[in-house]
Specification:
With 479 residues, the chain is an alpha/beta fold. It has 3 domains: 61 residues, no CATH class; 223 residues, ANL, N-terminal domain (Rossmann fold); 129 residues, Rossmann fold, CATH 3.40.50. Helix content is 41%, strand content 14%. The chain has a 4-stranded mixed beta sheet with strand order 4-3-10-9, sandwiched between helices. Strands 6-5-7-8 form a 4-stranded parallel beta sheet, with helices on both faces. It has a 4-stranded mixed beta sheet with strand order 11-12-13-14, with helices on both faces. Strand 1 and strand 2 form a beta hairpin. Helix 5 packs across helix 6 and helix 14 crosses helix 16. The longest helix has 20 residues. The protein is globular and about 95 Å long. It comes from Sinocyclocheilus grahami. GO terms for molecular function: long-chain fatty acid-CoA ligase activity. Its EC number is 6.2.1.3. Keywords: Fatty acid metabolism, Ligase, Lipid metabolism, Membrane, Transmembrane, Transmembrane helix.
Length: 479
């Protein structure tokens, strides 16, 4: 076999093999095209050397980083519906039928948790920790059993098993929050989160609006604050004999003068909304990121907002784990280091702090030069579609940065506000994992747009979700 034919036989079928082979040839001495190994008498050591070269070359071709290819043309991510250019849908859909659910057996949040229960069984579901200790885990089976018992207790206290029965929850992120939520869904009741950041009057408004007769609290002072409302004769919609079930209340903020802004508006979120929204993310990430049973997410963003709840539902649907922070945001980084999450929902403010901390820790001018050079090399890979955490730069420079966030991150989702392109590009390089941007509101079930895999630009959230349409309406004036 001639040497050129031997090189061609090493080609890998995927990717741009021509450019790879051209690069490989530059590493070898120039040889005539008619050169043949059979024309030489090779010593055993030469044969061993050529065999080693062939093995290394084959290993490089097989293990080289693969660029992530977008699932559609990034310049045409949406398609008009029935020829109407003002009404568009995602190009990832085969037709105009919007995605309602990804799995046939997951049409409600209860269904999604039950799917995770079937996958994980006695496997870990909800995690918590005490200061200085490792995480302790509650299994899927135990969560389901506790939800059943709590739900039965709510019925015994007078709640009705129907969607018009609203149960309030006034608690910080913790396993009991999820257990309460699942207890309500187990018996077809609706959950209404209460939170004190808007002030006492806003909470009264929520109790009134939803006619809540049952509130579950995590601390005594919260239960007392609700009871004081009743004792003072404030109309809360709570009938005589209402129950407060006890499972740091901050100072009240200044209230805006206009009541238009401070009164919270009710957002009626259906199980169908949640199923469609969750399924859209799963579909977009299909083939790029699949949630596995061993995945774990850190829960610290308020569960009163749908962003955090959508993350948790996605984890439960696949039998994965959710670990809760201790309740003190100053200890969050220690919780992350201990939990070692693979999934990290985050807001830009926290990413900015991580970015500043990384740069602030590099005081030596030489180390700063090396850091920025390594970042540029990783960013060059990123621009070609390669996302990895096993490069030379990861092993030499970025491993400590990645270890500070547990060392296992596979996926980060940032939302709630725009993020600086500089910060986003820097963290994509240093953390070596998928980082996506999302946009939405609680009123639209958290997300309505989501970065497209393979699009590593910043400041864009790509097309509308697969389960949504968007309609362009001209705005003639703004007053």
């Amino acid at each position: 076999m001639q040497f050129q034919e031997w090189l061609r036989s090493l080609r890998f079928s995927g990717g741009d093999s021509k450019s790879e082979m051209d690069n490989l040839k530059t590493l070898l001495p120039s040889l005539p095209s008619s050169f043949s190994l059979s024309s030489l008498s090779l010593s055993p050591s030469s044969i061993i050397g050529l065999g080693a070269l062939a093995s290394l070359t084959t290993y490089w071709l097989v293990t080289r980083p693969r660029p992530i290819q977008p699932p559609c043309d990034l310049q045409a991510q949406s398609i008009s519906v029935q020829g109407d250019q003002s009404c568009r849908r995602s190009a990832l859909l085969k037709d105009d039928d919007l995605l309602e659910f990804y799995y046939e057996d997951t049409k409600t949040v209860y269904d999604m948790f039950q799917r995770g229960l079937r996958i994980a069984g006695n496997g870990p579901c909800l995690g918590f920790r005490k200061p200085g200790e490792p995480y302790q885990w509650i299994s899927y089976t135990e969560v389901a059993e506790r939800a059943q018992v709590l739900g039965s207790g709510l019925l015994a206290k007078g709640c009705k098993p129907n969607p018009k029965q609203y149960v309030g929850i006034f608690a910080q992120n913790r396993p009991e929050w999820v257990i309460t939520e699942m207890a309500c869904y187990t018996f077809s009741m609706a959950l209404v989160p209460l939170y004190d950041t808007l002030g006492l009057e806003a909470m009264v408004h929520i109790l009134n609006l939803a006619e809540i007769s049952m509130v579950i609290c995590d601390k005594e002072d919260k239960a007392e604050s609700v009871l004081k409302i009743k004792e003072k004769g404030v109309t809360t919609g709570v009938p005589p004999g209402a129950f407060i079930i006890l499972l740091h209340t901050p100072s009240l903020p200044l209230r805006p003068q206009s009541q238009l802004f401070w009164k919270p508006k009710g957002a009626m979120i259906t199980h169908g909304n949640i199923a469609s929204n969750t399924s859209s993310v799963i579909k977009i990430l299909e083939g790029y990121f699949v949630i596995r049973q061993e995945d774990v997410s850190i829960s610290y963003l308020p569960l009163a907002h749908m962003f955090e709840r959508m993350i948790q539902v996605s984890m439960f649907c696949h039998g994965a784990r959710v670990g809760f922070y201790q309740g003190d945001i100053s200890l969050l980084m220690d919780d992350i280091k201990t939990l070692k999450p693979t999934f990290f929902p985050v807001v830009p403010r926290l990413l900015n702090r991580i970015y500043d901390k990384i740069l602030g820790s590099v005081t030596s001018p030489l180390r700063r030069i090396i850091l920025h050079y390594a970042v540029r090399r990783k960013q060059a890979e990123l621009s070609s579609g390669v996302v990895r955490n096993n490069s030379m730069w990861d092993r030499l420079i970025f491993n400590k940065i990645q270890a500070s966030l547990g060392g296992n991150l596979r996926f980060i989702l940032t939302a709630s506000a725009p993020i600086s392109p500089t910060v986003l590009s820097f963290l994509r390089a240093t953390l070596g994992c998928l980082i996506f941007e999302g946009y939405g509101q609680t009123e639209c079930t958290a997300g309505c747009t989501f970065s497209m895999p393979g699009d590593w630009s910043a400041g864009l959230c790509s097309c509308v979700f697969i389960g949504l349409l968007y309609i362009i309406t001209p705005v003639f004036s703004v007053t």
